[in-house]
Amino acid sequence: MPAVSKGDGMRGLAVFISDIRNCKSKEAEIKRINKELANIRSKFKGDKALDGYSKKKYVCKLLFIFLLGHDIDFGHMEAVNLLSSNKYTEKQIGYLFISVLVNSNSELIRLINNGIKNDLSSRNPTFMCLALHCIANVGSREMAEAFAGEIPRILVAGDTMDSVKQSAALCLLRLYKTSPDLVLMGEWTSRVVHLLNDQHMGVVTAAISLITCLSQKNPDEFKTCVSLAVSRLSRIVSSASTDLQDYTYYFVPAPWLSCKLLRLLQCYPPPEDGAVKGRLVECLETILNKAQEPPKSKKVQHSNAKNAILFEAIALIIHYDSEPNLLVRACNQLGQFLQHRETNLRYLALESMCTLASSEFSHEAVKTHIETVINALKTERDVSVRQRAADLLYAMCDRSNAKQIVAEMLSYLETADYSIREEMVLKVAILAEKYAVDYSWYVDTILNLIRIAGDYVSEEVWYRVIQIVINRDDVQGYAAKTVFEALQAPACHENMVKVGGYILGEFGNLIAGDPRSSPLVQFNLLHSKFHLCSVPTRALLLSAYIKFINLFPETKSTIQEVLRSDSQIRNSDVELQQRAVEYLKLSSIASTDVLATVLEEMPPFPERESSILAKLKKKKGPGAVSSTEQEDGKREGGELNGGGERGADSTIAASNASTPSPSADLLGLRSSGPVSAAPPSAGSLLVDVFSEAGPAAPAAAVNDDGFLRDLEPPTESSDSLLAEGPGDSDSAPPSVVSEDPAPPMPQSDELLHKFVCKSNGVLFENQLLQIGVKSEYRQNLGRMYLFYGNKTSVQFVSFSTSVTYTGELQSQLNVQTKPVEPLVEGGAQVQQVINIECLTDFSDAPLLNIKFRYGGALQNLTLKLPVTVNKFFQPTEMVSHDFFQRWKQLSQPQQEAQKIFKASHGMDKEVLKGKLLGLGMALLENVDPNPENFVCAGVIQTKAQQVGCLLRLEPNAQAQSGEQMYRLTLRSSKDTVSKRLCDLLAEQF
Amino acid sequence: MQFMLLFSRQGKLRLQKWYVPLSDKEKKKITRELVQTVLARKPKMCSFLEWRDLKIVYKRYASLYFCCAIEDQDNELITLEIIHRYVELLDKYFGSVCELDIIFNFEKAYFILDEFLLGGEAQETSKKNVLKAIEQADLLQEVCCSLPSS
């Protein structure tokens, strides 16, 4: 073996690589690379002609830089020049650079092709191979155009060296893959096929890849390869482990070639010629027999090579699917692997058995392994192996074992990895439908599915259960009863509410005889879920309600009441509003007969292929759903949606025609002036929600919020230059600076927001001054300690501070400050106590002005005092039931403030919790059905009143836009509070 | 085979060979994704995983991960042995190969790979024959070869 000197004579390259490796940081690396690039550029551009060695060295450096991940936009010409060098290594580096870096549309391709052409015709096998490697590596269409005619000739020519033949075969394969139209075998076909008989194993190994690919495209032209392949395989299989010399790999004769031969045979049906077929079956039996022999080596390479052939043979047996004996033997062999200690073999056995399960000859044999496979699903530590086990269970499922398999899959779902849950859900849904003997089992299974993995239950799944229940009257009563029971759970998944709403709306009458599920009980149960649902579900529920009016006339007045409420009939969502208005009208105008006709029970759905099955077919492997597939899924969902909700929607569609455009609808709402009626009731509701406070104070300021704002001093908007960087203002002559308080600093709002969720910390800092804050609050009172630290070594004189609060704030807060010492020594700190009383809720913050002289210059800065309305929160613990009740009570549009915004600080759960606790509300656990969401409750204590507030924060880590989003909803008895809290909090997450 | 990647335990890419045409951007994306996926796997896990519509076969040798992407029909176990044979070739050529050999002689690692695999298929599986080809090339090193005058 040649001793390899590091860097192979290219010392400069080795030094450069060492330099890069020694770089401590990415920046240093980039710096070093840029230096090198500049150097190389100047060398290439220089007047002095470079010798071949230097050119090679620099091209090699460029290549190294490119492989590090940097862009290279020059040096191609020099690389092309190297191709015509008469030194082998220079030529070699030139080719390597081109293989790695040249893209097919390069203008250099003509020059490159020229170089290749020269080498191909050189008759020097080493050069020819280099040129062929380059074509195979680049594989561009231009190269195919130039060489596709030439290479087959080289491949079959009698005097071509073996190594060149090998390269030519695979080079041709690559060209065929990129430009099949340019590679025409025609007259060469038979000679290429006969390469399978070549003396040289390497030639056969290379040629068979080409032949396999060509056979797949033109099986008839190449079918003579079958008998040649069988005899070649037979010779290998029956050879002793030493016969093939260097082509024996860890005592396995020619494993790569064997696999490729078996693979080639899979392009064809079983051989028709009896002798050939007999010989092949013999081979396959020998391979299966060898699997039972003791291993010739303990090395994993030996068993891998041997088993690679075995799996390929089993693939061929499955492909033929005609030899029951071989199929059962294959199945038994795989059964042994299922319990092998090598994870790789268990994985492959599960995978391979999946295809065996679909053969009629081996299906029963596969089924005998059910316990092992279930065990694998439960105990395998690698999720990819568990996935295979789940696939196999799905494949081996039939009527006889469906209940067992579905039960196992359901129990696995509870702990399954997120990556495979959706697919598992689809599979369970399909099996449950396909093998349902009694449909009550089917209904139970799907409802369990929603309970266990509701988030992963796609629309298709619940549409399907509804289609089936509608179409089968023997299961309708059972479905109504079961879904009614499922809805009793305090936290139901929204999909459960959808199914429940639909089924009770259609078949609630079947269980209405029982006083425990009387019409009103059913309605109240559904309606208790209403407010936590999304708009589409609410819309579905409204349709269920109107169906109730038809089914149970006694619920009419209750439901009309609900429809008539502002939160429905004036809902900001146009779809909900329209449904409420139309259903209300329909129920009050239409006669019983008309109502019964319009709201008749759904007719059966036409039978069609299960949409779920279609969806699973599209899902090829976890996470493999491309964006187009997702779109397809949506389209399909939309179509079904139409089908699934036909009963309810047809009434809407009918009335849609008479409705003007949605915007006109909205204007109509506005003009009716409902808002003025709302606030008083909001005030009194407060008493109900937190039955502690006395009667609510008249919310005088509430409506005129906007007006009063205008009265505030317009300081905020004046962007005076002085306001910026008060720390720098010591350069300005003191006499010019006004003694009036400066306007608030531009960053004062940001500083204020920092303190929404915490009470202590540094409020402000520049080169001179640091202001720290400590604060505590009880009921409607607060005490704040401000610490002014002099960061310089010079004393501050005339130090004074003042807190101002004007306009609206004067009636909302009462702030008392104690004066501070006018002298702050260098390095010293003075403390100031501020007492705050909250009279009523407020939105703005008082201003804190600080003035002092430092070295003769007046310093004048204004901040916002970090007091926000949430500081006066008293946390309120409550259980789920109470929370929802109060949430519902606060359902008027103006009581709610909502924002949807991008996460600006990540979504760490603990950080979120910390912030919400810092807010001052009680963080309620086990209230929201979705554990990812946060809900909080608290009462704001002011002198005038107590304001109950509820909060819900819904993180969405994967919104459609790919960004992390939040939806924040606040409800409180006072609209200003909801809005202010919402604004403040939206800045926090 | 669609591509082969060699990367270190720290996630540094040491060799990349692409047998299908892809843009540089796509290559970088794939590399990033796969390096992350493979490095996250535990030692006893199986050497195969499904990724997009391909199968990934990988194996770790000392500090280096060898990772191949093959198509649905391809044989996982024989691919593992392709990796092993390539390691053997490197080992024989460099004399107990280590990561540094591949860093400093990256061009040799590419040349050896080209002799062994071409267009993503095994070209020559005999260790002797591959090394003989490389040896011959090395003998030509710096030796002037006169081009045939044409």
TrEMBL record, chain B:
The keyword Cell membrane is assigned to this record: no
State if Protein transport is listed as a keyword.
Answer: yes
Spell out the molecular function terms from Gene Ontology.
Answer: clathrin adaptor activity
Keyword line? Coated pit, Cytoplasmic vesicle, Golgi apparatus, Membrane, Protein transport, Transport
Q: Which Gene3D superfamilies match?
A: 3.30.450.60
Q: Indicate the segments annotated as coiled coil, or none if absent.
A: none
The UniProt family comment states: Belongs to the adaptor complexes small subunit family.
On subunit structure and binding partners, the annotation says: Adaptor protein complex 1 (AP-1) is a heterotetramer composed of two large adaptins (gamma-type subunit AP1G1 and beta-type subunit AP1B1), a medium adaptin (mu-type subunit AP1M1 or AP1M2) and a small adaptin (sigma-type subunit AP1S1 or AP1S2 or AP1S3). Binds to MUC1.
Protein name, UniProt field: AP complex subunit sigma
Q: Which organism is it from?
A: Denticeps clupeoides
Ranked from the top, the taxonomy reads:
Eukaryota, Metazoa, Chordata, Craniata, Vertebrata
